[in-house]
Design a protein that fits this description.
Chain lengths: 320, 320
């Protein structure tokens, strides 16, 4: 390591928390991890994380610019993790995690949620380099989003903006969502949504042959649907057509809102190739307001999936 | 006029262009106007507007910070008016109006569309003073919007962001919109949309009594519906219930996107009182994602309607 500066990226997952030291070109030099859940309080977790960071950074302490964290229900405005359903020590409380980590390590610390971290990662290391207006859509179990406008994350007055997965896309008889409402975009456009669509189509078309019917000991997953689509399975292809169309229509609305130069799709489902992209692009071309036609590129994230979460989080620390 | 600085606000309407000199507290000192349409080219219009500005500013020239203009299809990124359907000399071309006005007057000049100007007006002189995240919705013939995030207008990569009137709110069998698509929010939530809803309800409920049926020599307007609602007319009340519900559902989606501290409603229809506000707030309370519940205030613009357009435009000039 030479004259340059480094940042520390922390990716808090539901099981483990991964830590990495990252340079300005997005290379991860040192890594470490701790459990996310083995603690009875936020204070205990912060103690363990602070110690792990201090160990990892011991040799390059003077060159560290700061720490960036991607955490579930992270509030960037005030550096807290708020009522995160899957984190035992933060389930019902608000923990001022950024301030706690600063006090353990001496480094400035910022945090935000995973999708916002992904957006910063794309801007600093990925496909959105040099862009000032873009949206990252993460297609995982749910649909997350990070919106960048004028070169800045849109976090809103309360720090929670960018919940595009919970825009209502089907207003009547929509699918039930984990949020307690119905018709949310993520109940259709996500790995879970794809599996749900396939299962619905199988049930609604009992006469249609599909290799997906052979999966009987466990629920059909989005990976099953992708594999079946590659073999030309009609139900699988119809599933992707439906998903792409719904997502394309939703993206047209998002373009009318913030007019991004690009929308970057991130996560496993984004790598479904033309099965997803073709109907998505078709729906956008049909549906988008004239003034925006052909202007917004759809890009598949090129960031290494395994590293993206640490990189995205670390990007926050360059933001000072 | 004392030591302080002034800006010039220019409001380009479909018929006339109004000009005003404005102080930092939003008081308009001098006014003037020219025709918008009596010219055969953008150059001729710029010549006339430049001359009118120079006349008006003659006595305070050294105290003018700059010119802000609100123009139809104004592109803030590059200071142009682009293919504005209702402006004869800009119908099919792109005119670099801001640069032309600077060359005629010597003052820096910025322009944007009416709804963005309204948003800046609210931020600098109106209900959004001190807010960094809010949305202004203008309810006129159509529905316009200006989105502010992190204290900056969201204009997007091409300068045309904030077309919330053209978000699709009814996906199947939606109303035909002037933009050539169907189901756009502004076909329901606008003065035109209210009149359209009332006419539909009258037709669909032939047995229901309504004073609106007495209007036979001209089409029913949104003002007619408001007057009838005040007298308890069932069709008129149902019209506002329907409009408020649709707008409230749309606003819930917009909150999920940029999480504004407030949404400010502007324009004649915004002054329909509880007829509109009650069903709107009810729909928002029912529909909004839990994390945003009760956080975003709905505010009716308090800016004097006659002055707001000049004030909003002038606000651009403080932005340097």
């Amino acid at each position: 390591m030479s004259e340059s500066y480094y940042v520390i990226g922390v990716d808090m997952g539901g099981t483990n928390t991964a830590i990495g030291i990252v340079d300005a070109r997005g290379r991860i030099f040192y890594r470490s991890k701790i459990s996310t859940t083995d603690y009875s309080s936020g204070e205990e977790y912060a103690e363990a994380l602070g110690a792990a960071i201090n160990d990892l950074a011991a040799n390059v302490k003077s060159k560290i610019k700061g720490i960036g964290m991607g955490v579930p229900n992270g509030n960037m405005n005030n550096g807290t993790i708020e009522k995160a359903a899957n984190i035992p020590w933060a389930k019902t409380v608000t923990v001022p995690l950024a301030a706690m980590i600063t006090s353990k390590t001496g480094f400035p610390c910022k945090l935000t949620n995973d999708a916002n971290a992904a957006a910063l990662g794309e801007m600093i290391y990925g496909s959105a380099k040099g862009m000032k207006d873009f949206i990252v859509i993460t297609l995982g179990t749910g649909l997350g989003s990070g919106i960048v406008s004028n070169g800045q994350l849109v976090v809103g007055h309360d720090g929670f903006a960018g919940e595009l997965g919970h825009v209502t896309i089907i207003r009547h008889n929509g699918r039930t969502c984990g949020c307690g409402r119905t018709g949310c975009l993520e109940t259709y456009a996500s790995a879970t949504g794809v599996a749900r669509t396939a299962r619905e189509l199988l049930e609604l078309n009992p006469a249609k042959k599909s290799t997906l019917r052979e999966i009987v000991y466990r629920p059909v997953t989005s990976e099953d649907v992708f594999e079946a689509a590659k073999k030309g399975d009609a139900i699988a292809l119809e599933t992707f057509d439906f998903t792409g169309k719904i997502l394309g229509e939703a993206l047209s609305d998002f373009v009318a809102c913030t007019s991004p130069q690009a929308i970057i799709l991130f996560g496993g489902l984004a790598h479904s190739g033309d099965f997803l992209l073709k109907p998505l692009q078709e729906a956008m071309d049909n549906q988008i307001l004239n003034v925006f036609k052909g202007k917004t590129k759809i890009i598949i994230s090129q960031l290494n999936n395994a590293e993206a979460a640490i990189l995205g989080a670390s990007a926050l620390a360059w933001e000072e």
